[in-house]
Design a protein that fits this description.
By secondary structure, this protein is an alpha/beta fold. Helix content is 30%, strand content 18%. The chain is built from 6 helices and 10 strands.
Length: 287
């Protein structure tokens, strides 16, 4: 009986240490320029400093950043794999992307049709440094970081941190819009040119991946994503910087309401409505 009691005490202490010992880790991508000069110069790279400041204040100790020419498709994939290799059960993970966004052909058929000037199935893509605006020999789609690929990496993140780990993804980019001309003097992150890939028909459509992490997107898919004029950084990034460590204790509803209020108080010429979706944690942590 005494041995059983000792075992129970040891198990309790182990669980307590395991809960307290979680590490806060982050991966931050910021792009303001691309190899393909048809992409408009933006200031996603300037977002990185603000994001890092916010994370340090929130207790993050493992923060890796990739900017501009280092943030190629291969570089971003390596950064994801490095992050995943370091993760432990119960960790808090924050992944941030600031840069251009673009619609690209959904080759595996897991997306619903949407209207972008034509009815078609589109994936939403992050634009690494070496991604080109249109299909060409240098980029047949493999240089784009489509939402399906991001989701597969995030699935691995979730598997490593477990149901009690917290996982956040912030995307300060738009998926459509027009970055070849500003709206007045406001800087827009995105392009109104879809990346068209010749699609192989007749294959079974893939199943959509469940969103087992919390995603904060800068705008709805059909909207533009703007930068502040001063400081010249992403509007969503600056909003989260102002929010600070409160981000990590808010419910989805509280965060959505706060962001809506921020955008209403700092309007652009056209609406920008952030979207909060998914779940940061699949099971309540032990107290």
């Amino acid at each position: 009986m005494k041995g059983k009691a000792c075992f129970c005490v040891a198990l309790f202490l182990w669980c307590s240490v395991w809960t307290v010992a979680s590490t806060r880790r982050a991966l931050v991508f910021g792009l303001g320029q691309q190899e393909d000069t048809r992409w408009r110069r933006i200031h996603g790279d300037k977002d990185v400093e603000l994001v890092v400041q916010m994370l340090v204040k929130a207790g993050f100790t493992d923060i890796r950043t990739l900017m501009n020419e280092r943030a190629t498709k291969a570089g971003m994939e390596q950064a994801f794999m490095g992050l995943i290799s370091r993760l432990e059960r119960g960790d808090v993970v924050y992944v941030h992307y600031s840069g251009h966004g673009q619609f690209m052909t959904d080759v595996d058929g897991d997306e619903a049709e949407r209207w972008t000037g034509r009815h078609a199935q589109w994936d939403e893509a992050w634009i690494p440094y070496d991604a080109y605006m249109t299909y060409c020999e240098r980029d047949r789609g493999e240089k784009h970081f489509c939402d399906d690929e991001v989701a597969r990496y995030m699935q691995q993140v979730r598997q490593k941190v477990g149901a009690e780990g917290e996982v956040y993804v912030v995307v300060d980019a738009c998926h459509s819009g027009d970055a070849t001309r500003g709206v007045d003097d406001e800087c827009v992150r995105g392009v109104d040119v879809e990346f068209m890939i010749p699609r192989q028909f007749g294959t079974e459509p893939a199943k959509a991946v469940a969103e087992t992490w919390l995603t904060v997107s800068a705008c709805k898919p059909y909207q533009l994503c703007f930068e502040h004029k001063s400081p010249q950084v992403g509007k969503l990034t600056y909003a989260l910087y102002r929010l600070g460590e409160r981000l990590f204790s808010m419910t989805n509803g509280e965060l959505q309401a706060w962001l809506d209020g921020y955008m209403d108080a700092n309007p652009s010429r056209l609406p920008q409505n952030p979207v909060v979706s998914g779940k940061r944690c699949l099971r309540e942590k032990r107290k």
